[in-house]
Amino acid sequence: MTTNRRSLLTMGGVLSLGLTQPARAQSADRRLGYAIVGLGQYADVILPRFADCRHSRVTALVSGSMDKARQYGARYGVPEGGLYTYETFDTIRNNPDVDIVYVILPNGMHHEYTVRAAAAGKHVMCEKPMANTAAEAEQMIAACRAAGSKLMIGYRCRFEPSNREAIRVARSAELGPTRIITAEHGFNIGDPTQWRLNRALAGGGSLMDIGIYSLQAARYLTGEEPVSVSAVESTDRSDIRFREVEDTINFQLSFPSGVIADCVSTYGSHHNRYRIVGTQGWLDAESATAYEGNRLRLHRDGRTIDHPAPDAGQNQFSAMLDHLSQCVMTDSEPLVAGEEGLRDMRIIEAIYLAARERRTVML
Amino acid sequence: MTTNRRSLLTMGGVLSLGLTQPARAQSADRRLGYAIVGLGQYADVILPRFADCRHSRVTALVSGSMDKARQYGARYGVPEGGLYTYETFDTIRNNPDVDIVYVILPNGMHHEYTVRAAAAGKHVMCEKPMANTAAEAEQMIAACRAAGSKLMIGYRCRFEPSNREAIRVARSAELGPTRIITAEHGFNIGDPTQWRLNRALAGGGSLMDIGIYSLQAARYLTGEEPVSVSAVESTDRSDIRFREVEDTINFQLSFPSGVIADCVSTYGSHHNRYRIVGTQGWLDAESATAYEGNRLRLHRDGRTIDHPAPDAGQNQFSAMLDHLSQCVMTDSEPLVAGEEGLRDMRIIEAIYLAARERRTVML
Asked: Residue A229's domain spans which residues?
């Protein structure tokens, strides 16, 4: 990566705003370097997306197995010097090619690796859910703030064209004021030995992993924060998959404007949809939050029609990766910063409380 | 209406079962006579359907206005002797052409006219919701039982082909065990002076009128009774329409099998759908409970296809009317008897309680 005249000028401009390390000033032309921590299934989804990035590249890989790290390094062009194990992870501070650490580990490890990444002077992208608890999330925000690191949560849907269009429609007057949102997310979970079914690693069950999409959707479609929540859980504890975490936990959110969101969260059946219902019609998304193939239908004046989202010119994953790079380069706050992840964690804890105590919990 | 040899034989057969008045023995060929009480909008939907009935005909009309009764009488072939006002209604006992009284009045009048119809020795079809309260419903059941009258609630969906097919699929193993049901019913209510917005006449708001379809669907699709309910209300009391009754009241039902039903009830936006989600796929109905044009789609193995219901050979209204006639003729219990209406009324009262006290109510 060479530093050209324009980038020097840009760096000067940014530096004049008083920025210092580790909120490093960056050229608009530079591609920031990502370290991917955790080479599991979702890393396999993320890594190929750097090819479509304009401001991001992968420069380091962190895995429990150096053999695996080398295999991935060969595939994605990461040299031996960019390969780390969890034991050597903290030395990443000495790697100037790494600007951002992307934590794609089980939920229960988000806190530790976010804090360690910040301590190493790196910015952080952390997968959802942000942590196992709201208390952990608060500590992660504090650690990044103290280190001068940006912290963003991997809420990819905010960078996905259908979801962006749904937000636009929901907050416009096109369907009249929104009255009701229904949001359903779930899948029939398999392998009972996976980390998602282990409380220490997952923090909870379907709500932490997939129901959080229903929660996010209700929040980003309204642009409001819920004032109360009620919830009902249904888990067959004799099912070997659900010894430690919940299966189904459906919840109702009440928003200040009077909107009610009815949300499904389950590990028992497939759901990927939401609907925004206004006084004059509705917008339906199904699939709503998939990796690709999301589809909108709009109903108004008795007719239902396909409602394609405008082409964004970039897939949701690459756009998300580039967004944090741009935030670092311009020292601006990510659209979905740590505080956004913390809001979800607090509501998730309220949902669990409401289900457990069989009462509406005020937020 | 002539009595032929076969009907005489059939009457003899039924009489030998020990039937006496007012559970009159009837020929399988005979068309029982209905009195329609209340000539409002829904009577306009029902009256033309007698043309497609095989066991039912309209023989009397009851209205606040004799002029209106005469107009309708001319249109539907009801002679002057079959026309009544609310003041003369009780003399219907002397009309041998009336077997069944169909109460299509505002909810708050269901109790009075069901009790008076039973006292007049007639069988009763009563519109949904059965009454303003569960206590009224209990009295209606007792009055009909004491009079030996059949009592059926006008739950037309149980006679509608798409709903019957949905019940079959939901209770079969075709989509795996049902895990989650979502059911949404609502419309954007207009004229603020209508009886539906008057608490004394309507008993409540959207839940009594349209949310009851979501409740019914959850119950008939599972074939189970809910064990608990939670609910959230959202009503803008500054809206002139909602001075006396609720706008939106969404509720969650928990069933013994572990199924959760998330139900929408609203007077603020249009909803007419439900979805049954099993471990292996889903069946979606939209429109679900309309007068006509209901449509089913089935999702399985990653594909969504139209799922047409078998042709029933008769529309839901005529089938419903004939069902009660046949129950009278064969002295059998209606599919949706007064007890079924009472079950809904008890759950409706629990939904109101749950919303008011912000807690899960056990049933």
From this structure: 161-311
Helix, strand and coil percent figures for chain B, each rounded to 5: 40, 25, 35
Task: State what percent of residues in chain A have pLDDT above 70.
Answer: 92
CB contacts of A268 in chain B (<8 Å) are 179-180, 279
What number is the ipTM of this complex?
0.89
Residue partners of A141: CB distance under 8 A and separation at least 6: A151, A338, A339, A342
In this structure, the answer to whether residues A187 and A268 fall within a common structural domain is yes
Residue of A nearest to B228 (CA): A232
Distance (Å, whole) CA B60 – CA B93: 12
Please answer whether residues B360 and A358 qualify as being in contact, where contact means their C-beta atoms are separated by less than 8 angstroms: yes
Instruction: Tell whether A182 and A253 lie within a shared domain.
Output: yes
The CA distance from A154 to A288, in Å, is 17
B260, part of any domain? yes
In angstroms, the CA B55 to CA A9 distance is 90
The token duo for A355 is 């289900």
Residue A5 has pLDDT above 70, yes or no: no
Give the N- to C-terminal CA distance of chain B in Å, as an integer: 49
**Nearest neighbour of A179 by CB, restricted to B230, B258, B268:** B268
Handedness of CA B92, B96, B97, B101 (dihedral sign): positive
Size of interface A-B (CB pairs under 8 A): 118
Entry pTM: 0.91
B116 shares a domain with B187: no
Partner-chain contact B182 A262, CB within 8 Å = yes
C-alpha A232, offset from chain centre: 25
Partner B contacted by A358 (CB < 8 A): yes
Query: Dihedrals φ, ψ of B248, to 5°?
Result: -100, 135
Q: Is B238 exposed, middle or buried (0-12, 13-18, 19+ CB in 10 A)?
A: exposed
Other C-beta atoms closer than 10 Å to the C-beta of A223 total 12
In terms of domains, do A56 and A83 share one?
yes
CA distance A100 to A121: 9
Pairing of strands A228-234, A361-362: antiparallel
In a domain, A357, yes or no: no
Verify whether residue B128 is a known catalytic residue: yes
The number of beta carbons lying within 10 Å of the beta carbon of residue B282 is: 25
Please indicate, yes or no, whether residues A144 and A32 belong to a single structural domain of this protein: yes
* Domain count along chain A: 2
Judge if A101 and A82 occupy the same domain. yes
Shortest CA distance from A255: residue in chain B: B234
Residues B76 and B55 in one domain: yes
pLDDT tens, A329-362?
A: 999 999 999 999 999 999 999 999 999 999 999 9
Phi and psi dihedrals of A73, rounded to 5?
-60, -40
- The residue type found at B50 is F
Backbone angles phi and psi of A151, in degrees to 5: -135, 125
Same structural domain for residues B191 and B283? yes
Backbone angles phi, psi at A356, to 5 degrees: -70, -45
Contact A92, A122 (CB under 8 A): yes
Distances (CA, A) of B256 to A111, A236, B211, B305, B342: 39, 11, 22, 30, 20
Residue B351 inside a domain? The answer is: no
Q: How confident is the model at residue A4 (pLDDT cuts 50, 70, 90)?
A: very low
Distance of CA A269 to the CA centre of its chain: 22
Amino acid in position A106:
P
Q: Does residue A2 carry a pLDDT above 50? A: no
